[in-house]
Design brief:
Layout lengths: L10 H13 L2 H8 L3 H15 L4 E4 L2 E4 L1 H27 L4 E6 L1 H18 L4 E6 L13 E5 L8 E6 L2 E6 L1 H6 L5 H4 L5 E3 L9 H7 L10 E3 L2 H9 L5 E4 L4 H5 L4 E2 L5 E2 L4 E5 L7 H28 L3
Parallel strand pairs: 3-4, 3-5, 8-9
Antiparallel strand pairs: 1-2, 5-13, 6-13, 7-10, 7-11, 7-12
Helix pairs in contact: 1-2, 1-3, 1-4, 2-3
């Protein structure tokens, strides 16, 4: 019996074996595969000849798996399940009614999720799944249609749409904002700063922020967290000062859950981007969501600039 790519026997023999092993019955496997029990028996005998071992013990009433048969069945069951999941994901992706968009937890909770809710109200027939992770998304991941990324994806095949460039400023509770309203960079650097430490991203740090604004002195060690949402919550509780991404945290600023501290503001070095495959490869649902996100960013630009002018008047 000739072998093919991956050094596998004919897939018909593996399918017949998996069905018979799962049912522990050639008859039931035959019914499932719409063939005769004799055909199932023939396929399994061919597979046993190919492997040089017995996979079943034939008994008076039914069959049972040998040790080798158990090992092969477990491997096939897992593999077939993974193939089934992949096929289902592909079907759902291109059925025109489902889209998956990825982002970090902070981007999702503060900005993307409200955008998705508004999209869903306008397109109730489209199901939007959100995938949340702090590490960078891989462009090659088949389960993600679109994702929000700070900076540009290094993959040259990625289609990237620049969304907006945020502004970075210290934020905290009302008490800290009032006490430090006119503080210098030197004084601010000695306050309890909340340092964000995460793997796999290029978000600016407090050190980047101070250096960009011209301060080269000592920066207090403060406290350290590995999630931006946690950093914002600590700042809301008055336990420290977070580096605020003003556009992302607009909901917290507009509801007075956080307050900008001092007049020091730095433009983010890079823009946020919406990343995905070419439009011709996107499902109808993914293309609708992409256009919605881009339109919302454009419509919200004037509102954001007005809000920033109120927070940091010249």
């Amino acid at each position: 019996m000739s072998r093919r790519h991956y050094n596998l026997p004919p897939l018909t023999t593996l399918a017949a074996f998996e069905a018979a092993a799962r049912n522990l019955s050639f008859k039931n496997a035959a019914q499932e595969l719409s063939v005769t029990p004799g055909a199932v028996s023939h396929q399994i005998k061919a597979l046993e000849r190919e492997l040089g071992v017995l996979l079943f013990r034939r008994k008076h009433r039914g069959v049972e798996l040998t040790v080798e048969g158990e090992e092969l069945f477990k491997t096939l069951a897992v593999s077939f399940f993974k193939v089934s999941q992949c096929l289902q994901s592909i079907q759902e992706k291109y059925d025109g009614n489902r889209v998956t968009v990825g982002s970090t937890s902070a981007v999702a909770s503060l900005w993307l999720s409200p955008t998705v809710v508004r999209f869903w109200r306008a397109h109730p027939d489209v199901d939007v799944n959100q995938s949340i992770q702090e590490a960078e998304f891989l462009f090659s991941a088949p389960e993600i249609d679109l994702y929000i990324r700070y900076g540009k994806d290094p993959d040259p095949a990625a289609i990237q749409t620049a969304l907006f460039r945020d502004q970075l400023a210290p934020v905290g509770d009302r008490r800290l904002a009032e006490r430090l309203a006119d503080c210098s960079l030197e004084s601010l650097a000695q306050e309890r700063l909340i340092h964000l430490e995460t793997d796999g991203n290029n978000w600016p740090t407090w050190h980047d922020w101070f250096r960009k604004l011209g301060y080269e002195g000592r920066i207090a060690p403060g406290i350290r967290v590995n999630n931006y949402s946690v950093a914002l919550q600590v700042a809301q509780d008055g336990a420290g000062i977070a580096l605020g991404w003003l556009r992302l945290i607009t909901p917290l600023l507009s509801t007075s859950q956080l307050f900008p501290i001092s007049h020091h503001v730095m433009p983010a070095p890079q823009r946020f981007h919406l990343v995905g495959r070419p439009d011709s490869e996107l499902s109808e649902a993914a293309l609708k969501l992409k256009n919605w996100i881009i339109a919302e960013v454009g419509n919200g630009s004037d509102e954001i600039r007005s809000s920033e002018a109120e927070l940091f008047p010249h």
